[in-house]
Design goal:
Blueprint (H helix, E strand, L loop, with lengths): L2 E7 L3 H12 L4 E4 L5 H5 L3 E2 L6 H17 L14 E5 L2 H16 L4 E5 H7 L9 E5 L3 E2 L2 H13 L4 E4 L3 E5 L2 E4 L4 E9 L5 H4 L6 E10 L9 E4 L2 H5 L6 E8 L5 E7 L10 H14 L8 E11 L6 E4 L6 E5 L5 H17 L22
Parallel strand pairs: 1-2, 1-11, 2-8, 4-13, 11-18
Antiparallel strand pairs: 3-7, 4-6, 5-6, 9-10, 10-11, 12-15, 12-16, 13-14, 14-15, 17-18
Helix pairs in contact: 1-6, 1-10, 3-10
């Protein structure tokens, strides 16, 4: 099958979710990816409702609902864990920010509760004393993203309308994609979901790499029970320049702790930056002093694809008929893959999107607008 209804470039979590949604919409799909890893393999796999702006909230909330719908059917390897998130307030000003966040989330029907200092200490005894409190968001979860992406592809393949090909796409021209070996694949629509590599196939996309570091420990079951995030993480996540770190620790079902987070611009060097790593770990120790006694077994880096307004590009490319974009999710690719896929599939297949697609439309950037 050299021609399909849709050809998806990228088999990470976003591309896999798009393939899954398109097959369920009745279309035949070919997925092409040379790496079969990328940002999906490098990230934390957190599933978290974010409310920095209404569009981010709509995309993440719709996605979390879909993740919870999928969860009972996912295999054990996906390691879906509804651990919830504690947004930690270090002082009274951050505690007020937590109250404001609660009001926003509750207004959208998202279950969350405030914990005072004593309740927070009971919930997470390993945290340092003196924190002001926390906002607990019950529905937030974690997942092992590489396996979840494969599960989505397996579900699509079970319908008999999906082909997965490990190959490198070199050029997109009209309905045709040329591979590194010179062979070609054609489709009625082409979906570009290759993250930070997308500009190689579609120059001019407003994507910028944000490098991040992660550390994983040996197994220490029961040390941490929720995903722990400082409220300052939101500010850090949207820094447009410079290097920033924030406290973010995630308990894995294995008993390991996954430690983040950092953001570093203007580099595509995958090597661990020891200075950034040291800052990140010191920030983690500020909240969890006991981490100093744990063994770290691996460190690594990855690159998020960021847009100037921190919202992904989801929808038709205004200057290239038949080309659709699903890129620029920054650190929320795993969280927002399901709603991204539904938005794209509805537009390609002629359905009704579950949420307004306008805020994510690629044409919002002048360089991508039709002259």
């Amino acid at each position: 099958m050299q021609h399909t209804d849709v050809l998806v470039i990228g088999a990470g979590i976003v591309g896999a979710a798009c393939a899954h949604a398109l097959v369920l919409a009745g279309l035949s799909v070919r997925v092409i990816d040379a790496r079969l890893g990328g940002a999906t393999a490098a990230g934390m796999g957190h599933l978290v409702v974010m409310d920095d702006n209404p569009a981010e909230l709509a995309l993440s909330q719709t996605s979390l609902d879909l993740w919870h719908t999928w969860a009972p059917h996912m295999d054990a390897g996906c390691a879906f864990t509804p651990c919830g998130t504690l947004w930690l307030a270090a002082n009274d000003a951050e505690l007020q920010a937590a109250h404001d966040k609660r009001s926003t989330l509750q207004a959208h029907g998202i279950a969350c509760d405030m914990l005072d200092a004593a309740a927070l200490s009971r919930a997470e005894p390993a945290l340092r004393p003196g924190l002001a409190g926390a906002l607990k968001v019950q529905g937030d979860s974690v997942v092992y993203a590489p396996r979840a992406a494969q599960w989505l592809l397996d579900q699509a393949a079970a319908h008999g309308r999906l082909v997965l090909e490990q190959a490198e796409a070199m050029q997109i021209e009209g309905h045709t994609v040329t591979l590194r070996d010179g062979s070609q694949r054609s489709a009625g629509a082409i979906v570009l979901a290759s993250g930070i590599h997308a500009p190689q196939l579609c120059p001019g996309l407003p994507l910028r790499p944000k490098k991040g570091h992660l550390v994983i420990t040996d197994r220490y079951p029961g040390t941490v029970h929720h995903q722990l995030v400082e409220l300052g993480y939101i500010t850090s996540a949207h820094h447009s320049d410079g290097t920033s770190v924030a406290f973010n620790v995630q308990p894995r079902p294995t008993g390991q702790l996954l430690i983040g987070s950092s953001r570093e611009f203007d580099t595509t060097d995958p090597a661990v930056n020891n200075a950034v790593m040291a800052r990140m770990l010191q920030r983690a120790l500020d909240y969890l002093p006991g981490l100093a006694n744990l063994n770290a077994i691996r460190t690594w880096t990855g690159f998020r694809a960021a847009t100037p307004d921190s919202l992904p590009l989801i929808g038709a490319h205004p200057e290239h008929p038949h080309l659709w974009l699903a890129v620029g999710h920054e650190g929320l690719g795993v969280t927002t893959a399901p709603a991204t896929a539904q938005l794209l599939a509805a537009q390609i297949a002629g359905g009704t999107p579950a949420i307004d697609p306008t805020p994510y439309a690629p044409a919002r950037f002048a360089g991508l607008s039709t002259p």
